[in-house]
Amino acid sequence: MKDYELTVLFHPDLEMNLDPAVDKVKKLIESNGGKITKEENDGKKRLAYKISNQEFAVYYYIDLELPAEAPAKISSAMNINDEVLRYLLVRTDERKAKFAARHAAKATNEDEEEGTINSEKGE
Fold first, then answer.
1. pTM tops 0.85
2. Nearest 5°: phi and psi at 32?
């Protein structure tokens, strides 16, 4: 299984009741052997250009793990979904993820050390 990132732009009219559309996408992922590791609703945003005569879309991000044959099946199903204006399914770069994790750990350690130094000074 490889790591992927799925960005979905949902129709703006679904903003108030997004759960059924998101559930469809989740079921599609899980029925193709995928596992969702993280998801985030980024809300309604203005598009850079109109898509299907829509100026806004609801952005939804999903980090997932998929077997080799699943991306093609998911892409074909997403193409015929009326609730989805656009989607982007990309494989994440493992090296970039490891670098980001190391960088975050280093920043956390520096913050902890700074807090210790400040507490020793009585600040």
1. no
2. -100, 15
* CA–CA gap between residue 120 and residue 123 (Å, rounded): 8
Looking at the fold, whether 105 and 74 belong to one and the same domain comes out as no
| Amino acid occupying residue 87 | Y
- Token pair 């679904």 in the structure block, residue: 14
> Per residue of the chain (123 residues), what is the pLDDT tens digit?
889 999 999 999 998 999 999 999 999 999 999 999 999 999 999 999 999 999 999 999 999 999 989 999 999 999 998 899 999 999 988 777 777 778 888 877 766 666 555 555 555
Residues 16 and 73 in one domain: yes
Residues 97 and 86 in one domain: no
Strand pairing partners for 2? 66
Report the C-alpha gap between 26 and 53 in whole angstroms. Answer: 26
Whether 34 contacts 23, CB under 8 Å: no
